Amino acid sequence: MADLLSDEEIEAQLPDEWERDGDEIVRTYEFDAYLDGVGFAAGAGGVAQDAFHHPEMTIGWREVEVRLTTHDEGGITDKDVELAERFDDLR
Ligand SMILES: C[C@H](O)[C@H](O)[C@H]1CNC2=NC(N)=NC(=O)C2=N1
């Protein structure tokens, strides 16, 4: 059970390069090659499954957009922030 973060908590805890978009936090990772993005998404998927907390990921040309929200709570919780930090560590 994760509690919804307040606007102030989100602002304070949002990792660098991440932005808030309504009830989601979002970051677009950029890569030198398309398959580097595909590989990142695969690794992020493994981390997500390990955390059992799953992002929406859109794989584009040399970029991957990652969106996180806690569906069970209807907004942003520390689960989203923690997973964002773990994704950043994959870089
Ligand atoms: C039952 C519930 O769907 C599961 O506990 C997990 C699965 N992955 C999830 N992922 C995300 N982003 N939010 C959730 O609330 C969530 N819930």
From TrEMBL:
SUPFAM superfamilies with a match to the protein in the record: PCD-like
The UniProt record lists the keyword Transmembrane helix: no
Family: Belongs to the pterin-4-alpha-carbinolamine dehydratase family.
Keyword Isomerase found: no
Naturally occurring in which organism (per UniProt): Halosimplex carlsbadense 2-9-1
UniProt-listed GO biological process terms: tetrahydrobiopterin biosynthetic process
Protein name per Swiss-Prot or TrEMBL: 4a-hydroxytetrahydrobiopterin dehydratase
Domain of life the protein comes from: Archaea
Catalyzed reaction equations: (4aS,6R)-4a-hydroxy-L-erythro-5,6,7,8-tetrahydrobiopterin = (6R)-L-erythro-6,7-dihydrobiopterin + H2O
Matches recorded under InterPro entries: PCD_sf (IPR036428), Pterin_deHydtase (IPR001533)
